[in-house]
Amino acid sequence: MDTPLVITVALCGAEVSKEKNPYLPVKVEEIARDAIECYHLGATVAHIHVREEDGTPSSKVEYFAKVKELIEKEVPMIIQFTTGGAVGMTEEERMEPLKLKPHMATLNLGTMNFGDELFINTPDFIKRLALKMKELEIKPELEVYDLGMLDMVEYLVRNGFVDEPVHVDFVLGVRWGAAATPENLLFMINDLKRRNIQFTWSAAAVGKNQLLINTLSIILGGFVRTGLEDNIYYRKGVLATNQELVKRIVRMANELGRPIADINQTKKLLNIGR
Ligand code: KMH
Ligand code: ZN
How many distinct structural domains can be found in the chain? Predict the structure, then answer.
């Protein structure tokens, strides 16, 4: 409980739309503005997807570059780009943003049914992404959605594709992935410990159990990912903003006696050297 709490804000993702939540940032200026405001509220990591003007998911490197530039002009936040993108994007499109050398990028550890769609992450592509990140000194965040992906964490570690301590994000509650339950989160944490893997972890939950899993992560000494990418409601029937979701995590951490990580602590905890 003494470890400072790193808060990641997943600002917009690829699946949620402004029709569902008008507070969703989709233009590059809106995404950067939310990130900057969330930084001032206590979030030190920005998980970034970008959208076209009409709100559809995009892989345009110039949009990623613009968001990065706008954020970095104002605050020293950790920039974490998605390589998950949106279902249906090609591998090349998904690798594009790595060119910009963000501090971090996501590495999704397996193929799965993602709601009614197929989210494809072949072992070959996972390894290619990992090696590219290594070459560019980008810290990967290993996204684990289900149990078999824990085997992939171990495989990547033991075969030198990623360096320990790795940072793992347990993404629970995707439809047809592991459900967002305390039991599943505890199992995953303990499984990596049993394998003697050196790791830090955060957890995200898609849908209504976001707050439950976020709170549990605060209590268990992990880090938190919140934001509209994962959940658009503050409570049943009440739409959220990214700012409100971050504010609530900070308030909860204060109540529970967990300090919030500043940017220097975040870099140290996640082993980010630049
Ligand atoms: N949009 C999802 C299919 C990531 O950012 O790396 C994948 C995703 C994960 O959002
Ligand atoms: Zn994402």
Answer: 1
Give 113-169 pLDDT, tens digit per residue: 999 999 999 999 999 999 999 999 999 999 999 999 999 999 999 999 999 999 999
| CATH code of the domain containing 74 | 3.20.20.70
Does residue 45 contact residue 260 with C-beta atoms inside 8 Å? Answer: no
Q: How far is CA 37 from CA 9, 34, 46, 51, 262, in A?
A: 11, 5, 11, 20, 15
Element (H, E) at 232: none
For residue 240, the enclosing domain spans: 7-269
In the prediction, which pLDDT does 209 show?
Answer: 98
Q: Report whether pLDDT(1) > 90.
A: no
47 CA distance to ligand 1 middle (Å): 10
> Closest Cα to atom 2, ligand 1: which residue?
86
Residue 274 inside a domain? The answer is no
Residue 248 above 90 pLDDT? Answer: yes
Instruction: List pocket residues of ligand 1, CB cut-off 6 Å.
Output: 13-15, 82-84, 86-87, 106, 108, 114, 119, 143
Distance between CA atoms of 274 and 263, rounded to whole angstroms? 11
Among all ligands shown, which has an atom nearest to the Cα of 145? Answer: 1
**Which residue, 143, 153, 154, is CA-closest to 80?**
143
Judge whether 2 lies within some domain: no
Q: Whose CA is nearest to atom 1 of ligand 1?
A: 86
Ligand in closest contact with the CA of 174: 1
